[in-house]
Amino acid sequence: MPAATARPAAGGPVISLDKVVKRYTMGTNEVLAMRGVDLIVEPGEMVAIMGASGSGKSTMMNIIGCLDTPTSGSYVLDGVPVNGLSRNQLADLRNQKLGFVFQGFNLLPRTTALDNVELPMLYDRAGRWTDTRATAAAALTRVGLGARMDHEPSELSGGQQQRVAIARAIVTQPTVLLADEPTGNLDSHTTVDVMSLFQELNEQGITIILVTHEPDVAQYAKRIVEMRDGRIIRDVPVADRHNAKADLASMVSDDALAVVA
Ligand SMILES: Nc1ncnc2c1ncn2[C@@H]1O[C@H](COP(=O)(O)OP(=O)(O)O)[C@@H](O)[C@H]1O
Ligand SMILES: [Mg+2]
After folding, report:
1. Does residue 31 have its Cβ closer than 6 Å to ligand 1?
2. Nearest CA, atom 27, ligand 1
3. Which of 183, 252, 185 is nearest to 219 (CA)?
4. Is the full-model pTM beyond 0.90?
5. What is the pLDDT of residue 200?
6. Which residue among 59, 61, 232 has the greatest number of ligand 1 atoms within 8 angstroms of its CB, and so is best to mutate?
7. Residue 4: pLDDT over 70
8. CA-to-CA distance for 72 and 20, rounded, in angstroms?
């Protein structure tokens, strides 16, 4: 096993956006998707990004995720200045420091959970991983799917598929977990179940940034950042943070009451 995710000895924020502008040009049309965004995220934070459709949430996540680069302004990820890196360097940075979770799970079909979770380690060009099968199995056990490793996505529920996707995202021990609408395709019970897993992983030290348009989901985060028209218009700590495990327990007892009522 490699050492835990390398952090610069000096510490410092994991995410630092400074006056980031993102301009898309389509023909003669220009869209300013980010209009000078400053954002600092410290290690151990759990941030919910909110805002109406088109406000720039996905654009910001793509930049934080090194899938796209700013038109102007600077971005430093875990001590590494991202501006000016080549495509290959960006890919390596993603593989080493970031884990991604998507609304639609994005698992490979007809491929077992274990094979899906092993994949990011096989893609690591730095060759950091040796015992990839055992490491993938440990990640699946960590998300509560130790007994489902040989199942393909079609044999799993939506919540289980998202757990496999989360195992795939954390298997490389990323510094930051990025999730764009991770509960958008899940029913309310499964949503709370997935949020309880995010809270557990965050307790264990991983920094989490998630996009959601559901206020209930944002209440599980520690901080809410709201965007409008490419700008951050609100950035507040969550006053009455919800505990997903406790909410799950009360949902189960409500269900039990409904049965006897
Ligand atoms: N690849 C792109 N090309 C052109 N315009 C884009 C592109 N991606 C996003 N936009 C525009 O940028 C703005 C912000 O989009 P987006 O970041 O997807 O918002 P959100 O995720 O909050 O719905 C929108 O006006 C959208 O149409
Ligand atoms: Mg979006």
Report:
1. yes
2. 54
3. 183
4. yes
5. 96
6. 59
7. no
8. 6
pLDDT tens for 82-134 read 998 999 999 999 999 999 999 999 999 999 999 999 999 998 888 899 999 99
Residue 52 CA, closest ligand 1 atom number: 22
Ligand 1 pocket check for 55: Cβ under 6 Å:
yes
Q: How far apart are CA 169 and CA 139, in angstroms?
A: 9
Query: What is the pLDDT, as a whole number, of residue 261?
Result: 61
Q: Which atom of ligand 1 is nearest to the CA of 26?
A: 4
The CA-atom distances, in angstroms, between 248 and each of 137, 188, 255 are: 26, 10, 11
Q: Which domains does the chain have, with CATH numbers?
A: 15-260 (3.40.50.300)
Q: What is the mean pLDDT of the chain?
A: 93
Strands across the sheet containing 29-41: 29-41, 15-26, 72-77, 80-81
Q: Whose CA is nearest to atom 16 of ligand 1?
A: 56
